[in-house]
Amino acid sequence: MDKKAPAGNPRPNPLPGCPMAAAFAAIGGKWKLTLLYWLAHGESHFAGLRRRGAPITPKVLAEQLRELEADGLVERIETGPVPAPVIYRLTPYGTTVLPVVESVRLWGEAHLERGGDETAADAMGCMHPVA
């Protein structure tokens, strides 16, 4: 898989013809659903996403954003010449995955309550429903 694929050039499906494999290839990274969730609540600069997701290393954050961009879910907007901030936001196609993101968030909330861990979810700002 080419992790530096340009936007609009979807990465290949590891199991051609399998919709589950296609879905996991697009949104199955360790941080992808969380990034989609955060971007559902508004566009953000790279630094803002980095501050919000403290345990995400800059390298992994950049890789995950690049893959989301390559799959057409997120767009990267350059605000000027380097070192101007870059803004990330969901594409119209990216908004189509939000029902999945919200379903996963609700399941995760119930899973945390089942395990007795009710405070951890709010630490990364994941308690608000996706509109």
Please estimate the helix content: 40-55%
- Structural class, please? mainly alpha
The residue ranges in which pLDDT falls below 50 over 5 or more consecutive positions are: 1-8
Profile the largest sheet.
Answer: 3 strands, antiparallel
Q: Give the ordered list of helices and strands.
A: HHEHHEEHH
Number of helices: 6
- Overall morphology: globular
Rg value:
15 Å
Strand content: 5-15%
Mean pLDDT: 84
Distance between the termini: 32 Å
Strand segment tally = 3
Reading side by side through the largest sheet, how are the strands ordered?
Answer: 1-3-2
Give your account of this protein's structure.
- With 131 residues, the protein is mainly alpha-helical.
- 45% of the residues lie in helices and 9% in strands.
- It contains six helices and three strands; from the N terminus they run ααβααββαα.
- The chain has helices spanning 19-27, 32-40, 46-52, 58-70, 98-114, 120-123, and strands spanning 44-45, 74-78, 86-90.
- A three-stranded antiparallel β-sheet has the order 1-3-2.
- Helix 2 (32-40) packs across helix 5 (98-114).
- It is globular and about 50 Å long.
- The model is unreliable at 1-8 (pLDDT under 50).
